[in-house]
Amino acid sequence: MKESLDNYISRCINCGFCEAVCPTLDAADFQAYYGARGRVNLAKEFLNSSLSEDSVINSFNSCLHCNACLAVCPAGISAGEISEQMKFLAKRKDPLAIFIARNIIKYGDPLNIGKRATFWSRGLKFNDSSEYLLYTARMYQLMPYNSAVSILRKKFGNGILKVFSNIMREIGFSGALLAPFVERKKIEEFNSILINIYKLITDSGVEVRYLGEDEPYSGAMLLELGFKEEFNEYANWLVNFFKSKGVKKIITIDPHTYTLLKFQIKEYVDFPFEVIFYLDLVKKEVKFNGSITIHQACHLERYGEKYRKYNEILSGTRIIYPYHFNEKTLCCGGPDEVLFPDMTDKIADRRYQELKSTNADYILTMCPICYVNLKKDDKVIDISQFISNF
After folding, report:
1. Which CATH architecture has domain 284-389?
2. Going by DSSP bridges, is the β-strand pair 362-365/287-294 parallel, antiparallel, or unpaired?
3. What is the pTM of this model?
4. Residue 112 has pLDDT above 70, yes or no
5. Which fold has domain 5-89?
6. 365 with 374: CB under 8 angstroms?
7. Gap between the Cα atoms of 69 and 132, Å rounded
8. Contact predicate 57/102, CB 8 Å
9. Phi, psi (degrees; rounded to nearest 5) at 227
10. CA 115 to chain centre
11. How confident is the model over 280-324, as pLDDT tens digits?
12. pLDDT value of residue 149
């Protein structure tokens, strides 16, 4: 957003179109300030110094940045962009958010899972001289640990978790502390998805590099949680890190990392690398006798482009689209699972039920966060699993 926040907000005509598509409004039982228009109006009041931080911050923190509001707004306004700016202006941050941000800055990883992020790659062949870097950004690897945090939250409540966050951010944190709460089956499941992605790329004739334990997280959650200055520093570090490794082309495997590096990061730093979504490299046409439905990720539909390369790969398969598809796709509820798990559950269940109502044989996701939130039964699979198996 290049114009001032005041000018941006002033374009709102309060028509309410955004309320019809905002996923958090319904999940918050239609409390006005948990919807897109409510967030815009709160921002207006806050900038006029008529509201305190404590009275507004939960509204902005709960925004999913799905940009559904932008897709229908006649004035071209994104409540997600406004929420991001407002979280940056707010001085008080959620203790869990501070804990995550400090881990990213200190360890290059929101939960400091360390070498556990590389276990999926054991026995696989990489080419250190390849111009293509396979960059997982640790996203799929982090999901079982995110689920463990959710288990802790449900078991001990938000209060204990915030106290824990305050202590751990001061003394240091290792993902190993979460190990007793992490399901081994989930780790194997996500490692298998990563292997599928690797094989889809290499079977298409592309050799890749992988940085192993040196691979850092992208920094996406710094922006999502309102740590704009910290992200600016982290983005500069990331650019210099990639340059030091001789990186030229970056293959991303999840929508959040893809849109961050291809579009968003350029507002903060010069990012002189070619950014590719892995499906662009896959040379395969799937022929499946049954039917599928696709949960299209918000970041691939409403961030900088309408990414639909997967339609070519799936052209030999019958696709049944849900009621909300393409640029009107519904959010899965992420990344609110960190701070607002109950809201995420409601949003995810609504989307899952809509996808299930198509009666398709499989429900495909293409984002690790979407996969976790929508995985209610065995019909929900990652798109890489489907392409690999058929």
Report:
1. 3-Layer(aba) Sandwich (3.40)
2. parallel
3. 0.93
4. yes
5. Fumarate Reductase Iron-sulfur Protein; Chain B, domain 2 (1.10.1060)
6. yes
7. 35
8. no
9. -95, 70
10. 22
11. 999 999 999 999 999 999 999 999 889 999 999 999 999 999 999
12. 77
